[in-house]
Amino acid sequence: MALVGPAPPMTRITLVLASASPARRALLRAAGVDPLVIVSSVDEDAMVAELAVDDRDSVTIAEMLAVAKANDVLQRARSLGSGPTLVLGCDSVLDFDGQSLGKPRDADDAVQRWRAMRGREGVLVTGHALLDAFGGSTQIATARTVVRFAEPTDAEVEAYVATGEPLAVAGAFTLDGLSAPFIDSIDGDPSNVIGLSLPLLRRLVRSAGHEWTNLWAERV
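RESULT FIELD:
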């Protein structure tokens, strides 16, 4: 009869999140990963403005900004030490009515967006760039989730925008916050709408030659 021994020791991998998003950090922590946050200094608006008009599609924008954010913090991540380290950059945009929408400019912009979106659907696009700080590999991929919006009243829209929440998020809505009752349904990965796609990230980690479970803060 074979005896089952103790589980082999893990090679702990540090994940550096190049984002100030509390939603992305919360998603990772709920999945057992406690990332080290190093916020990038990328000027997103300036980078998008430099793109030719024909290149301003949602996937190009999301992937370009995700790569830029990851690269921006790469050297700082390397200074942490020599252990296995992965750097994750993400960027989300809402593909709606032929436009790529990031964060609203101001409250009036958020109100106008919600009045246009209600009763319709858009696609939340999130670019993911995963850089191996010492192994040199780069994994880039995009997740897409269809979002169907309900029909909040003008009063509900104005009250929601007054909270300030939609001004800080791509597309001017959240799936895990105050606007959740204003979303009828989605097709695709819900974590992608919240901030990053956990299933896609797991695949990228494995493509980089690592095990997802080695990112866990502790063995569970």
